[in-house]
Design goal:
The protein is of the alpha/beta class and 628 residues long. Helices cover 38% and strands 12% of the residues. Strands 9-15-14-11 form a four-stranded parallel beta sheet, with helices on both faces. A hairpin with a 7-residue loop joins strand 12 and strand 13.
């Protein structure tokens, strides 16, 4: 036996069927035909729609042939098909195609064949979007070949293979390995290995990660969890004389876990290291030996050291907004009165069993702000994001993500739309910015097209877009910056020499509206733009919403790639506030206070209240005590 036999990353140890992934991607009938109340002639087969004219005609003939042979009306809902009819529809007729005999390829074999033969990446991506992951039938998700899974170690819970051990949480594994059932020579051989294992598991426990299972996939970890795993490896290294820089390590942490994180950080400094933490959390600020308060406001209003010293000195500084909240001079006020919750108007999640949820039923009241809280790893995100949100998206918007294991969600007919307001970027290129994302740039371009100079030159609104040829600077193609590829190093962005970052050519910049060019408008802050566009209701309303969520310091044309997650989330909230919504909307927010100062949290709560007062429903996952 060799160590590589127990590694699913090695061809020697990986399961032959799933190549060590533990899961297999297969075409999912529920995604192929998402709305089974439709008939085949009404576009029920989502995977066979929008495939190009020639292919659509061929699919149309196949559907007619299938309906004629099986004796089915083209308007008959798929959910009313017999088991045999469904089997032929999805899997086709068995055997080879014979002359004169009925043969139907089936949706799944057809798409598998196309996936293997196509050279188009777009076609591959479209077909893969109808796939869902299922556990490998051979290794049952263990990832390893049978020989590896038949090697056991004795434990207090009985013999265990490596897959059973790594499926345990860090806390349980640490407890199990503290009392190994090894004797004689085996105990001596295992002693240094166990000591190292116990040490590393202890470091992971010290940063509050005992609830994670050892085999948890890295792409399912939150940013805070990934950061704390890296921190645990540093704690275990025992290095001294190192400067550690941590950016908001309390993300996703319950108050209970904050204390353990602070103890870990103080231990790092106690053994001879320097620990520098960027943080808004009150507990971390109070635990610091030295505090530097940057301000006094955000964006263009900041950039100065307002106060520095001990926490006590910060509290006594009249100029420090942070000190005002820490000392109690300013507080986030509780609501004067609570909304009355109507128990008859609720959305109910029944029998949620995904991940570690214990077959629970949960009520979410309509027209209310609901906060889902609890210790890290207790199942908040699973309940809200994987069960409630995905079920609502499938029901109302034909979402493709399969919900977590549950019996059903009742009451979704009471809402008209679902919006997940997360911290994902509002765009992935410098072309995207707050003006384009909120839609106000369309109105601004129309205003420039109405000027006398634009009419003389016959400039349409499209002339003032930096995304199309005509008005933009062609040297940087309207980005304002040029990317220089650095071999073996990250790409470097430099200001365009031709337009000096203005994005437009000189002819376009000669058109002025109220003495400002289109480039000048994009460089305005939201605060300045609110007054500048006061006479234009649609633009002014959206700008006012951006200011109300605390983003008055942002430039209208600031590239989305430079925005933080918290800023992106608040831009999404502002867009929802500034749009006149029809019907009732369910908003789902996952830890919206991440990266927010006390003053920003206060503004955020006012925005959330405004959404609920309009008759909408909010579900917020949060640890922040003020939100709770």
């Amino acid at each position: 036996l060799e160590p590589r036999l127990f590694s699913f990353n090695s061809p020697f140890g990986a399961c032959r069927t799933c190549d060590g992934l533990g899961v297999m991607d297969e075409l999912d009938p529920e995604l192929l035909v998402p709305d089974q109340s439709l008939g085949l002639g009404e576009g029920a087969i989502e995977a066979w729609r929008k495939s190009g004219r020639r292919l659509n005609n061929w699919y149309g003939r196949q559907i007619r042939k299938f309906c004629d042979e099986m004796g089915i009306e083209k308007t008959k809902p798929v959910k009313k098909f017999t088991r045999k009819q469904r089997d032929v529809l999805f899997n086709g007729t068995p055997g080879q195609k014979k002359r004169g005999a009925f043969h139907f390829e089936g949706i799944i074999p057809n798409l598998v064949r196309r996936l293997k033969k196509t050279e188009s990446e777009l076609v591959r991506e479209r077909i893969r979007s109808f796939m869902s992951s299922s556990i490998c039938p051979d290794c049952n998700g263990a990832r390893l070949r049978p020989e590896a899974l038949h090697v056991m170690i004795p434990t207090s819970d009985g013999p265990m293979n490596i897959a059973q051990l790594t499926s345990m949480t860090i806390g349980n594994a640490a407890a199990l390995l503290s009392d190994p059932r090894l004797e004689g020579g085996a105990a001596k051989i295992a002693e240094p290995i166990l000591r190292e294992l116990q040490s590393r598991l202890g470091f992971l426990e010290s940063v509050g990660l005992e609830y994670l299972s050892l085999d948890r996939a890295a792409n399912t970890l939150s940013g805070g969890e990934a950061q704390r795993i890296r921190l645990a490896t540093q704690v275990g290294s025992g290095l001294v004389g190192v400067c550690y820089v941590l950016d908001e390590p309390t993300i996703g942490l319950h108050q209970r876990d904050n204390e353990r994180l602070i103890r870990t950080l103080r231990n790092l400094s106690a053994i001879g290291n320097t620990v520098l933490v960027v943080e808004h959390d009150e507990g971390v600020i109070r635990a610091a030996d030295h505090v530097v308060d940057i301000g006094p406001g955000p964006g263009v209003h900041g950039g100065r050291v307002v106060s520095e010293g001990t926490v006590e000195e910060l509290e006594q500084d009249e100029n420090s907004l942070t000190g005002a909240y820490l000392s109690g001079r300013r507080t986030i006020e509780l609501p004067g009165e609570r909304r009355t919750v109507d128990s008859s108007r609720i959305i109910t999640v029944k029998g949620a069993r995904a991940n570690n949820l214990d077959d629970i039923d949960v009520d979410f009241p309509l027209n209310a702000l609901t906060c889902v809280t609890g210790v890290s790893g207790s199942g908040k995100s699973t309940l809200v994001n994987q069960v409630l949100l995905r079920s609502a998206m499938r029901s109302l918007h034909k979402g493709r993500d399969l919900p977590g294991d549950h019996e059903g969600v009742e009451g979704l007919d009471a809402i008209d739309r679902v919006v997940a307001v997360d911290q994902s970027p509002i765009g992935r290129t410098p072309r995207s910015n707050p003006a384009t994302y909120t839609g106000i740039f369309d109105g601004i371009r129309k205003l420039f097209a109405t000027t006398r100079e634009a009419k003389i030159r016959a400039y349409a609104p499209g002339r003032f877009s930096f995304n199309v040829k005509g008005g933009r600077c062609e040297s940087c193609q309207g980005q304002g910056v040029q990317r220089i590829e650095m071999h073996f190093l990250p790409d470097v962005f430099v200001t365009c020499d031709e337009c000096q970052g203005c994005r437009y050519n000189p002819e376009t910049l000669q058109v002025l509206w109220r003495h400002k060019s289109i480039s000048d408008v994009l460089q305005m802050t939201v605060e300045d733009a609110v007054d500048f566009f006061e006479a234009h209701a649609g633009i002014h309303r959206m700008l006012s919403c951006l200011r109300d969520v605390g983003l008055g310091y942002l430039q209208l044309g600031q590239p989305s790639t430079t925005l933080s997650g918290g800023e992106a989330q608040r831009i999404k909230l502002a867009r929802e506030l500034g749009t006149r919504q029809q019907g009732t909307v369910l908003y789902v927010l996952d830890e919206p206070t991440t990266g927010l100062h006390f003053a920003d949290v206060e503004k955020l709560l006012q925005v959330l209240d405004r959404l609920v007062d309009r008759g909408h429903m909010l579900v917020v996952i949060e640890h922040n005590m003020d939100v709770i």
